[in-house]
Amino acid sequence: MQALRAQSHIVVGTDFSESAERALDMAVRMAQPGVTRITLLHACELSAELGVPDPLATPALDRELIGISRQRLADAVARHSGCGVEIAGLLRSGRPWDKINNVAAEVGASLIVIGRTGAGRGAIADLGHVAVRLLRTASRPVLTVAGHDREFEPASSLRESSKC
Prior knowledge:
Number of helices: 6
CATH topology: Rossmann fold
CATH class: Alpha Beta
Distance between the termini: 16 Å
Helix content: 40-55%
Shape: globular
Strand content: 15-25%
Number of domains: 1
Oligomer: single chain
CATH superfamily: HUPs
């Protein structure tokens, strides 16, 4: 883990799940305060991408999806403030694996961190479809973090005990 501490920019993909929160916690723990920047990215899939039937796939629904995503992203960034690590929230629309790869290239990230589901059987089921597609297409290293590891201590609890 020492070699990973020298990362200058980490992109963390989030869908606001427990495993995504743990991925952000891991990135914060790996980050070097004052050196490492973290971009927390949520790729909001709009109504048409989600398969919402045409009569229901309206601009109003998409605005609502974007508004909810924007608020949840701001909340996630706020939960990790005060750790000495610059964390910027970024909202994009589209397929998550494409957007994560695009943003990682745009910011010159040296690492991508994402959560994995831990549900189902076998390697693909354990990773989840976004993680599998990202791993297949990424142009830089990807670290996946399980959402079910009970021994992992979240960065937010480290901050409260002033170890962050």
